[in-house]
Amino acid sequence: MVATTNTEITPRYAGIGVYYVGGQVYTIFDNLLITINSPPWLINVTNVPINWHVVLRDGTGNIISTGVSTNGNVSLDVWNYFITSDGTLELYDEKGI
């Protein structure tokens, strides 16, 4: 895993989930994702050549989301997979290579 930092943004809000069990409050998270002006359930891949495929897979190789570039951009919907352990992002040209 590669950590990245963008010092050009300053988040105004952040949140983590909490849950109650037996009167106790618990918060557990592995990674925190903060998005600015973009829904957190979309991964936007930009500058993708026309007709190239973008595939997002989970750690076991299952396809989570896929898309084809028609205008240089691909949005991958990850609504049901907010946390993807050991995921990979694959790019394939128009011939599938």
Structure in words:
The protein is mainly β. It has one domain. 0% of the residues lie in helices and 33% in strands. The chain is built from no helices and seven strands. The protein has a three-stranded antiparallel β-sheet, with no helix packed on it. The mean pLDDT is 79.
Quick recap of the structure?
The chain has 97 residues and is an all-beta fold.
Q: Order of helices and strands, N to C?
A: EEEEEEE
Helix content: under 10%
Spans of at least 5 consecutive residues whose pLDDT stays below 50 are none
The total of beta strands comes to 7
What about the largest sheet?
3 strands, antiparallel
Strand content: 25-35%
Task: Please state the CA-atom Rg, rounded to the nearest Å.
Answer: 17 Å
Structural class: mainly beta
Report the span from N to C terminus: 24 Å
Q: Tell me the overall shape.
A: extended
Overall number of structural domains: 1
